[in-house]
Amino acid sequence: MERISWNQYFMAQSHLLALRSTCTRLAVGATIVRDKRIIAGGYNGSIAGGVHCTDVGCYVVDNHCVRTIHAEMNALLQCAKFGVPTEGAEIYVTHFPCLQCSKALIQAGIKQVYYAKNYKNHPYALELFDQAGVQVEQVEFDETTLDLKKNEKWDYVKQLLNHLAQLGVSEKELSQWNEQAIKLFKTRLFS
Ligand SMILES: [Zn+2]
Ligand SMILES: [Zn+2]
Q1: How far is CA 109 from CA 41, 52, 77, 88, 102, in A?
Q2: Ligand (nearest to CA of 54)
Q3: Residue 131 belongs to what H/E stretch?
Q4: What are the catalytic residues?
Q5: 28 alpha carbon, closest ligand
Q6: Cα(44) to centroid(ligand 1), Å
Q7: How far is the CA of 36 from the centre of ligand 2 (A)?
Q8: What is the pTM of this model?
Q9: CA of 74 to the centre of ligand 2 (A)
Q10: Predicted confidence pLDDT, tens digits, the chain (191 residues)
């Protein structure tokens, strides 16, 4: 097993949090980190005790679901609620933050934003981050990080591919199966 980087570790946490999202339109997760320690996390969902989009559908106004609090905001509010300073902290988000969240992050003193996927990246958000001296960096998340059985699955697929080769499947077909396996496992162990 390869040791994962801090960036992948915190990004994995945000992707786990996104699995708790209650909005059917988009699942977002955010993790606030200080000195390599997770100080808060959030996902997009309703206010505590409120009804969920997953149960009653989204509340859409102007093409936005207004029922949910965004992941970044939830993470910041968790800090506010429990009195945890966010000055100088970093945030890991699954998607590029919306304009409102971007402003809130700047105002809360977040100094570094790591995001996995581009999502309607607002040019004004980028401008404000730049103005405030907030570093913004895309960290592509390797989803196989969350698969604890990755190696066993990979070995199994390798066996199947070898078996196919023995059965006399054409080179062309074999390389197609192989390409697909490499895409899924993000590794090139099989050649
Ligand atoms: Zn919703
Ligand atoms: Zn937002």
Answers
A1: 16, 31, 13, 6, 11
A2: 1
A3: helix 123-131
A4: 72
A5: 2
A6: 9
A7: 24
A8: 0.89
A9: 10
A10: 678 899 999 999 999 999 999 999 999 999 999 999 999 999 999 999 999 999 999 999 999 899 999 999 999 999 999 999 999 999 999 999 999 999 999 999 999 999 999 999 999 999 999 999 999 999 999 888 888 898 899 999 999 999 999 999 999 999 999 999 888 887 654 43
